[in-house]
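Hi there. Long-time user, first ticket. I'm pasting a complex I've been working with (about 610 residues overall). I'd like to know whether the download I got is complete or cut off, because the file seemed smaller than I expected. Thanks.
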Amino acid sequence: MTLTEQPPITDRQPLRAGFGRGLVAAGHADHRVVALCADLTESTMMTGFADAFPARFIEVGVAEQNLVTVASGMAHAGKIPFAASYAAFSPGRNWEQIKTTAALNDMPVKIVGAHAGINVGPDGATHQMLEDIALMRVMPNMVVVAPGDATEAEQATLAVARDPRPVYLRLARAATPLFLDAAPFVIGQARRLRDGSDVTLAGTGTLTYQLLVAADRLAELGIAADLVHFPTIKPLDDAALLESAARTRLVVTAEEGQRAGGFGGAVTEVLAAELPTRVLRIGIDDRYGESGEPDELLAHFGLTGDRIAEHVHEYITRAKGSK
Amino acid sequence: MAEAEPTAATDRELQTTANQIRRSVVEMLARAGSGHSAGPLGMAEILTVLFFRIMRHDPARPDWNERDVFYLSNGHTAPVLYATMAHSGYFPLAELGTLRRLGSRLQGHPERRLLPGLESTSGPLGSGLSQAAGFAYASQIIDRDRRRFVYVCMGDGELNEGNIWEAAMFAAKYRLGRLIGIVDRNYIQIDGSTEDVMPLDDLAAKWRAFGWHVQEVDGHDISALTGAIRHAQAVSQQPSVILAHTVPGKGVSFMEYDYTWHGKPPAPDEAQAALDSIDELERGLSS
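Hi, the file is complete. Here it is re-exported in full:
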């Protein structure tokens, strides 16, 4: 895995905007692509697809169980269905239908969970989906993708449309920094964003940007971080993880979701078996979110780059002390 | 394609086929030692009419892309689907003896990936109607296919599930005339009578209120079932449902109407009595 120089950060966009563009492009590229929505067309940003391909856009109403099961039937009829809602409801409400009719049934249904994570903001805990990574990565046959920014989300949507497997695509509501280039997305492939040998920073979703900020802070403290972005949580790029961990022997993971069973859990499982390594897992620690502005909530839960850098610095100091 | 067209069997011949399927159901369940008896026995005529008279399908080409599609939403009645498929020629009858065994293609609940001809994986209730509706939408509205029909069997207890009524609204909204649902209305579910567990009646009025074309029929009457399905095929501007009134455990005298047979198989000594009972039913038809 080579180091990828990424563009300077000039702007912010919600991941779902990238998804919306990618879906339109996927619709042009393949006439089998259809989109289903559960009364959230605008906020999942499927409006562009609905306007471009009205015959291939299906409104199912506020019915998330029906959303994915209708999508399964369409997949069986040869379509490539993208079924979008808020992650709190899909897969939050319809996990069994996804398991039985998409994953076990091996249908290429694309579950799009918008508004995942705490950055949903003022809507509060009911709408802040923090358990979806854990829920979806334990499901056999299911691919789990969590892009880092809107540019990557656009590319990821195209890759997801081409992939024959059922996929969970995790999106966020808030506008987050654009820090990744528009390289074609390869499912299952990690991207190295900083080269260093003191600590591995492994991020997924929009928290990789916070790790980028943290890496800069740590550099000021003389700590060279190896920053690896994992936009695919399952299948995890084990080789990239092990290569980095073998050099640094210290791993920090970050995700906007529950620490239990999430991305950090996936990383820890690989390391425990192949290369026992200390792992600091940063995420939400066994509690629910609450109302607030997205940036306030990131700070409140210790997920900003500055707070992560402090946390990592302490951890490294302690880890070295106990060697 | 000739082999894909429905066979020209008489009602009487189809009734015999249904009873052969019943025999297979009893034999497979007794050998498996677990599984559901009442529903599969009650649905023998419904599946016989679909597979041996109504549907365009070809057991030699289960993925033929012009076939009619059948979803079994009440997946726990898998034995009657397996028996019907085997008698249709999808796989050898001898394989029925592997039901629920390790390594078998005949899982306790249907698994599409294992057995060619199965259209979907099912078991957890309430999801079949929406899958059938999704298929019908893709076929009828997006692909503008004017030949294919999509059939889905549901149990009546299964109608407790909210997913069914989400799908019912969906199918009516999009006028899925190629979608035909059949409810096995046998009035039992695991805990007892459907009307005690969670009342469904007036079930026909419920479906009508949801925008469906509704027919009620004797689910053991080959001729009446045929007529109802043909009539449903002619309804083009709304989805159709046929409430097929059946006797749970039909054909096995000591199982009929007894809800305790919903979820258990006959013991070995009961199996022979069950087969004798089915033979008696068959002989009664001849006399």
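A couple of notes from our side: Chain A has eleven helices and 14 strands. The CA atoms of residues 151 and 259 of chain A lie 26 Å apart.
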